[in-house]
# Entry
Amino acid sequence: MKISFNGACKEVTGSCILIETGSTKFLVDCGMFQGKSYYKNIEDFPFDPEDIDFVLLTHAHLDHCGRLPKIFMEGFRGRIYSTLPTRDLAEIILLDALNVSRIENKPFVHPLCQESDIKQLMRFFTCLDYGNKRKINDNIEIRLRDAGHILGSAIFEVWIKEDGITKKLVFSGDLGNMSNPIVKDHEFIDSADLLFIESTYGNRLHESKKMGETILIQEVKNTINKNGVLMIPVFSLERTQEMLYRLNSFFEEQKINGVNIFLDSPLAIKATNIYKQYVDFFDKEAKELIFKGDDIFDFKGFKMVKGETDEVLNASMPKIILAGSGMFEGGKIGIYLKKYLSNPLATLLIVSFQVDGSLGRKVISGERKIKVDNKEVEINAKISTIFSFSSHSDHRMLFDWAVKANPKKIFVVHGEEPASQFLAESINGVVPDYNTFYNF
Ligand SMILES: [Zn+2]
# Structure
């Protein structure tokens, strides 16, 4: 079989792997490039989308599903296999991405794509549960396993029969962190022939979650004490829901109180409503809280902002504002950064991975002046970071997971070059280049 890498090579966005056997061609993910690689979304695929028989979609993050509208507009009409939550979340994520590209006046992955095309694309999903083998054709079987990354995220096991020999391919998708709230821990896979593993944190170890939670409580208390504002940029999927889950717990346990908390992100609000429909996918702790009658995404002083951004700006201090996007670009967070970043009573708490080239990365690297929506803003606010809330496995977890899978060959993708190389060296893997192929 032939394996081609069409994204997320030595970078974290644009996931897209093409597998070609004698009779079948399929993709694993078809994601959007973000940050400084955005221009690659406009490039032609090195394959004809009409020839693709099906797509395996690991999860609904834009860097995994964002070029589905492009292959669809260019003639792909096969099935897209995913879990149910992935389908529902992918729909709002893709519609939002189209909308953002219009607002920001930047080209979408396909220039002619309309909302109706994305709605049409959703009809091509076939949704599967975790754990059951599914025959796709005479030579291919698949099984989804829980990747523990965001709601509905999946690891794909794929059995491919060629010339009477069956090989097992395993695609990690994005592999979740252990003991994160809401989602279950990722599953382990064994007996792989060929393994494709992400490496976002391939060269780092996470701080302890306890420490992250201590920082979060401390920053909330500091904000209350100095009568200031705490801004937390959040991704709409998972990070928002996890932050609400944690804040809800802190309020219930009376570790914090006396402050208004706002979520200003239309997309995160939609995603949270989808989360509420899939309680079956939650871990034991989250289910127990819900069973006891706790709304894990709501608590005293919390408000979902549905268009009243002015109300949040005018609300008295102290206040906490969660807003998208997680990397500061697009979304409502820009409004608050412009208003508060120069205020020494403000705190900016960064709780998400910041891709190379993003505004968030610049702030972490210590830049004291940044451009938000074309306005230069001086940073006088306190900058605080928590990296342990990551939805990705760290080096040790990736290493353990790869070793248990015991594969004959490993490809390391979805990481910046140093991260991918470091992980690859430790597990004897190969880091492919963009638009290259291998035979296996
Ligand atoms: Zn992801």
User: Anything to note?
Assistant: The mean pLDDT is 95. Residues 59, 61, 149, 174 surround zinc ion (CB under 6 Å).
